[in-house]
Write a structure and sequence with these properties.
The chain is about 30% helix and about 25% strand. By secondary structure, the chain is an alpha/beta fold. It has 2 domains: about 140 residues, NAD(P)-binding Rossmann-like Domain (Rossmann fold, 3-Layer(aba) Sandwich), CATH 3.40.50; about 110 residues, Dihydrodipicolinate Reductase, domain 2, CATH 3.30.360. The chain has a 7-stranded parallel beta sheet, with helices on both faces. Strands 8-9-7-10-11 form a 5-stranded mixed beta sheet. The two termini are about 25 Å apart. The relative contact order is 0.17.
């Protein structure tokens, strides 16, 4: 039985993780960590320090906030706990630094997106990138999302850039008119990325490729947070067999 600590259990994603872990036959919620949480059927704590001192768990799942996730993960890894992180906003340098503080064979698994469809979308984009001179990423999320662009969009742009080996010649920021700076989005490794925030969305992303006389659009929609849970459970089950830093759900899928 895998014992799971859930950081951010009172949030929307955290509560979905609690439900998914509870329903799984091979794992259980050992504790919840959230300064804004209420009493539950499992032990709850306000901080990672309290949880490490008073609860036994094998894996920490973190869906908290960009300003607290690094502290949670550093302390858990230093205590030898495997970590599954879905909180976005962590750079590769930060992730590598955190993984370097892991005790023993502890694993840090970070996924920009836990939905299997989004992972496949990124793989399809990677495959298409060398054949199209232009590519842009547009991501749509709910209005309460804390970071922009999304971790999925950043990861997608990075994969496109690495795969195609050339820079786009499409007009960029030099074409933005005065007072309308930002119209061409932000550049991630040379790939324009645009973020939309609006009520009505959960998570949607489009990757638009263009070449002479044609376009290719790869789109993924997530309408409910339960779509993330198979990927989260796969991560929880997989980290015990790995160590160090693992980035991307595709590492366990493909």
């Amino acid at each position: 039985m895998i014992r799971v600590g859930v950081a951010g259990y009172a949030g929307r994603m955290g509560s979905a993780v609690v439900d998914a872990v509870t329903a799984a036959d091979d794992m259980q919620v050992a504790c919840g960590i959230d300064p804004f949480g209420s009493e539950q059927v499992f032990p709850t704590f306000k901080s990672i320090d309290e949880a490490l001192a008073n609860a036994e768990f094998d894996v920490l799942v973190d869906f908290t906030q960009p300003d607290v996730v690094a502290g949670n993960v550093e302390k858990a890894l230093s205590a030898g706990k495997d970590c599954v992180v879905g909180t976005t906003g962590l750079s590769n340098d930060v992730l590598e630094g955190l993984a370097g503080k892991a005790a023993g064979d502890a694993c840090l698994f970070y996924a920009p997106n836990f939905t299997t469809g989004a992972v496949l979308m990124m793989q399809f984009a990677k495959a298409a990138a060398p054949f199209f001179p232009e590519a842009e990423v547009i991501e749509f999320h709910h209005a309460r999302k804390k970071d922009a662009p999304s971790g999925t969009a950043v990861r997608t742009a990075q994969m496109i850039a690495q795969s195609r080996g050339f820079e786009s010649e499409a007009p960029g920021k030099e074409t933005e008119i005065e007072g309308c700076e930002g119209a061409r989005g932000t550049l991630v490794d040379g790939v324009p990325v645009h973020s939309v925030r609006s009520m009505g969305f959960v998570a949607t992303q489009e990757v638009i490729f263009g070449s002479m006389g044609q376009t290719l659009t790869i789109k993924h929609d997530s309408w409910d947070r339960t779509s993330y849970m198979p990927g989260v459970l796969l991560g929880i089950r997989s980290v015990k067999e790995r160590s160090g830093l693992i980035v991307g759900l595709e590492q366990f899928m493909l």
